[in-house]
Amino acid sequence: MKISELQVKDIVAIEDGRKLGYITDLEIDVDKGYVVALVISLKGKMLGLFGKEEEMVIPWNHIVTIGADVILVRTERPKTLPDGYNYPSQ
């Protein structure tokens, strides 16, 4: 799958069905060669004087499924983190 194909999919929280926004970037572990997290632009959230959109980081292991039109994600953080992983500050 190409990044451009992911960028057009709605990101939806499974907890409440909210549409969160769209993928704007990926966090990649270049040493290990895999995607660590999705960076999404939150729908309708604007900050600052220049209209910069608010972003949210979704760890890759919070992706439930990637469908034809949507990516379903968990937005609640688990009580324990996988070894070697720290949540980025938001």
Automatic annotation (TrEMBL):
Residues forming the PRC-barrel domain are: 2-75
Q: Which residues form the signal peptide?
A: none
Q: Which Pfam families match?
A: PRC
PANTHER family per the UniProt record, alphabetical: SPORULATION PROTEIN YLMC-RELATED
Q: What is this protein called?
A: YlmC/YmxH family sporulation protein
Q: Which organism is it from?
A: Salinibacillus xinjiangensis
